[in-house]
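ok trying again, last paste got cut off:
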Amino acid sequence: MSCDITNGRVEECKSSVSGLKNIFFANFDDLTVDNITYDATNGDTIDSWVPAAQLTLFKYELKSNENSFTTAIQTSRDNGTTFFESTLQISLKKQDQAMHRNIKLLAFGRPRIIIQTMTDQFFMMGLAQGADTEAGEISSGSDMGSFNGYKLTFVSREVSPSNFIDVTTEAALKTAFADSTGQDAIIKAD
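nice, full thing came through this time. structure:
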């Protein structure tokens, strides 16, 4: 693999915003890395991912400023290694029985997570290894105005940064994850 730089970058306009809009969980075993098609001009962007059967994506809306998605570059000159550690921190308001069960399942599993930003960019976190719930808390708060709900931290460690997915809408996301018979993915929000 060549380590040569292939392009530069001009100063970008101040026209972007930060923040997360939604996340979508996919069970790890529902997708295999063998069925990914990458963009021909940008090998790190996912065009489509064909599951063996119709895929269900579980959507979580994020309406708080406490949600964040970052990727740290972990490199060691001594060991000759580099990997990318992505961290997703989310706050989900209000406790209920169904979410309690989901929290347990998320902690036990290693889902793949699709992140949708406020600018409608989509990223795949945990492409090859999945993402682990590495921290979290269920909080009832100390007074009537305190946070009540779930705070979770997911971490993935991969050989590449979280991949862009070449879509800008949920409808396009469903089509990008259509199965081999052409059935679009299902998005469940409740």
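cool. The chain has one domain: 22-188. The chain has a mean pLDDT of 91.
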